[in-house]
Structure formats: C-alpha cells, structure tokens
Amino acid sequence: MTLQTAIVILNWNGKKYLNDFLPTLLKYLPQSAGVFVADNNSSDDSIDFIEKNFSSIELIKLKENFGYAQGYNEALRQIDAKYYILLNSDIEVTENWIEPIIEFLEQNENVAACQPKIKSWHQPEYFEYAGAGGGFIDFLGYPFCRGRIFQEMEKDFGQYNDTIEVFWASGACMFVRADVFHKLNGFDEDFFAHMEEIDFCWRAKNMGYKVVYHPASTVYHIGGGTLPKSNPMKTYLNFRNNFCLLYKNLPQKKLFIVFFYRLLLDGVAAFKFLLDGGFKDFVAVMKAHFYFYKNWPKLKRKRKMLTQKQVSGIYLKNIALNHFVGGVKRFDELDSEKFSK
User: Residues 79, 81, 84, 87: what is their CA dihedral angle, to the nearest 10 degrees?
Assistant: First the structure.
C-alpha cells in the first residue's frame, strides 16, 4: 500500500540527534505518514538504538556511507509513497509541521518541492543557515536565502511569512513529490553532499516545475550535524559542486560569461583562504577546479541529457559584491526587480 507521506531521515553516526528529536517527530506524526531511517553504514550504535527504542520506525540499512545524494537515492527507491519529506537528523519539528505543506502540494500539482521555515535551534528567534526562508542563487551561482546572506542571519519578525516561489528548497527539510523525484533520477550522486538539492531544484525548474517556501510550517535546525561549517572537505564539495551545477544547468548563452567571472572570483577566494592561514582550504579550491576540468567530458554528457532554459528566482546581480562591498545584510534590502521572472 502506498503511503501518502514518508518522512525519511538519512543517518550517519547520529544517535545523539535520533535520541533527542525522534520522540518529538513521532509525537507530531499524522496517521497518513510513516517514518523511515536510512542508515549510511554508521559506526556508532544508531541501528541498535532504533531497533530497541523505536519499533514503529522502519530501518533501511545501507551497505556503506553513500553520502547525502546517493544515500537518499538508494533509500527512496525502497519507499513507496506519494510524498517524501527528507529530514536531517538534527532537526526538531513542531506541531502541525506536515499538514499545511502536504495540503498545499495536493492543491498545486506543478510544485515539485517545498520547504518550511527553518529556524535556528540554538537561537530560536533567528533563521538558520541551511534554508532559512527559502533559497535563491545569484547569476554567478552563489546561494543565499531569505533570512540569510552568507553568514548574516536575520531575526524572524514575520517578515517572510508569505508563501512564495523560490529557487531552491533546503535539503535539511525538503518536501518533494515522489514521482517527480524519480522522474528526474533523484539527486546527482557525483555531488556526494552539498548543493545536490540546488541542482535537483534547478533541474525541476528547467522541466517546468515550481519550488516553493511555505511558512505555515516551522522546524528548528542545529546545523553542522555531520560536517562542521569550517572544514576543508566542505570547502572542496561546495566549490566543486557549485561549478558542476552551473555547467549542467545554465543556458548555453550564459556559460562563458559566468565561468569567466567565477574563475576570477574563485581565484580571489582561494588566495584569501591562503592569506587567512587556511592552506587546506586553498588546496580544496584548487582540487575542486581540477576535478571539474578532469571530469568535463562526463559533465558534458550530463548536460546534453538535460534541458536548460531561463528560469525564475535567479538574482541577476552579484550577491557577494552587494554584501561585502555594498553592505547588504538582509534579503529584503535587495531589489526585487533584479530577480529573473
């Protein structure tokens, strides 16, 4: 029997978070939903812990640590549901967090993915880095959110309490139609982790679907649960995957100018890491570029299999310039007319 909603937590050595947040998740679980934990071959005792304490949760035991992208692909192939909710293990849900978004998706079949309001567990009055009030990118591929520009987090005063179309929904808590997820072949497994949800949402938008932020649902995210923000591996994945998603999804006429500017700016970022004493981060940026050049033939084949077109939600200016030079700290300080329609 097909579930209406499957909540799927991808776990890797996250016993502490499972212990902290599964009780609340089960407390606010509607009858139409089921909970699955897909374990990425954890080395802690996460599996034993779930089996002993949460018999209602279905376990999917993966044979190795596939990362976020392939881990979810492997798990979701085994789950028959109309909607998936991809939920990080370090998220605390709230009462009635599922129903408003599922109802919205039922009424809007052209919406492929949706995210709730994501706030900080440590500072509940503030938005959280990974998604905040819905994600966007600028024309050079730099991601930012309503409520978060680079490391600048906004306090939630209700300023983003409107349901709007965004560019990407956060993988920390993403509601997605199962049929669309599989139609698009899920996440790009070469990403391993970081920005795979942006790539997925961009591919969905290129196919004519919408991605939406719905603030009637709120969750609280710890963030950095499996990989700290300051980490050379994260630097590598972010730079590498950002280059790959741009190459795969940009319209042909924009490729040259975007990559010309990105090469310059990535060089600046690399040397800033070096000057700040971050030699490993400097090396990570270099490795990310070498990966792209080495794998360009494979990426070219991927690009040919996809549709590329002008889509809505791209900020047509440079968010880095606005923030670091212009002093912009809040999303609502940006000119709404500078976003693609």
Answer: -50
The residue segments making up the domain with residue 112 are: 3-221
- The answer to the question of residue 171 being in a domain is yes
Alpha helices (H) along the chain: 15-27, 46-53, 67-76, 99-107, 178-183, 196-206, 232-249, 252-275, 279-294, 296-305, 319-324
Count the Cβ atoms, other than its own, within 10 Å of residue 325.
9
CATH number, domain containing residue 78: 3.90.550.10
C-alpha to C-alpha distances, 15 to 2, 112, 208, nearest whole angstrom? 29, 31, 39
Number of domains in the chain: 1
The rounded distance, in Å, linking the Cα atoms of 220 and 52 is: 26
| Residue 134: other Cβ atoms inside 10 A | 29
The 10s digit of each residue's pLDDT in 164-200 is: 999 999 999 999 999 999 999 999 999 999 999 999 9
Span 207-221, pLDDT tens digits: 999 999 999 999 999
- 215-246 tens-digit pLDDT: 999 999 998 644 455 689 999 999 999 999 99
According to DSSP, the residues that pair with 173 across neighbouring strands are 87
CA–CA dist 276, 270 (Å, integer) = 10
How big is the CA angle at 93 (ends 89 and 94), to the nearest 5 degrees? 170
